[in-house]
UniProtKB/TrEMBL annotation:
UniProt keyword terms in alphabetical order: Annexin, Calcium, Calcium/phospholipid-binding, Repeat
Example GO molecular function: calcium ion binding
Free-text domain note: A pair of annexin repeats may form one binding site for calcium and phospholipid.
Family: Belongs to the annexin family.
Pfam families hit by this protein: Annexin
GO cellular component: cytoplasm; nucleus; plasma membrane; vesicle membrane
Phylogenetic classification of the source organism: Eukaryota, Metazoa, Ecdysozoa, Arthropoda, Hexapoda
Protein name: Annexin
Amino acid sequence: MPQVYTPKPTVLPAEEFDASADAATLRAAMKGFGTDEQAIIDVLCARSNCQRQQISAKYSEELGRDLLQDLKSELSGNLENVVLGLMLPPLNYQCHHLFKAMDGFGTNERTLIEVICSQSSEQLQQIAKLYEELYNRPLVEHVCSETSGDLRRLLTLLLTTARDPPSKVDRDLAEQQAKQIFEAGEANWGTEESTFSKILTRSSFEQLELLFDEYKKLTQRAIEQALNAELSGKFYEALSAIVEYVRSPPRFFAKRLYEAMRGLGTDDSTLIRIIVSRSEVDLQNIKEEFERMYSKTLENAVKSETSGDYGRILCALIGKP
């Protein structure tokens, strides 16, 4: 894990948990005329993903119905997107967003970068295996068909090359790597992009932290400054995402949440994806970093950009500041 910090979720398993009772509550919320959206929010946001899977199983076993299908038929819009995200197992949810980013006309490269560049090698291997099972297509092949140039090569390396183990940390090696990056970029006319890709995709996150320190010692400039000076486009965005995540996962996601709500219109897909996927990981850390960076709470920022049941379910996942 990059940097030493204690991940703090906002959604925890319910201590007094009765899957059968929850299944009955959800059915009652959707039965007959109208839907009790608040009852659905109250149940799903107070249960862990593992508990939601148990509720779904009881719903099928005891009521003879498919919970996911019932939820789809009763909900719509962004509320439906949040609820369905909560009902998918975490790896399935990541695969869903990767597929969605590449399906149809055009490619959402920003989503590919965010999801792929913020995973460990083990997580990427699990995602790649499940992706092929779900969509009958290798993830790396799909990514290659939807991207090009240096970005394609970088994402391919991340998906096919395992990072060094966290225990393999070497300050002398970090010094050598810092020199290699300097010589591939700032020290020369032109840039050897392959050197940046090779080092930043193969070294462990812990080794990269040392590399960043050594680069600063060598050049008196942060690695971020070097990337900004030497690279551009989506390749730059991807390498910057790796650096940002290594520096601080909460800051990485806090920045993306802020950008999803900045300016005209809201990037609801990104907002939902991060809040749902991080709620059982480190959303509390992200909340704290968001407030430190932007001098406002994440809950208040979300409230100002959303409305109705959609806003309420996101704020339920975020928790009170």
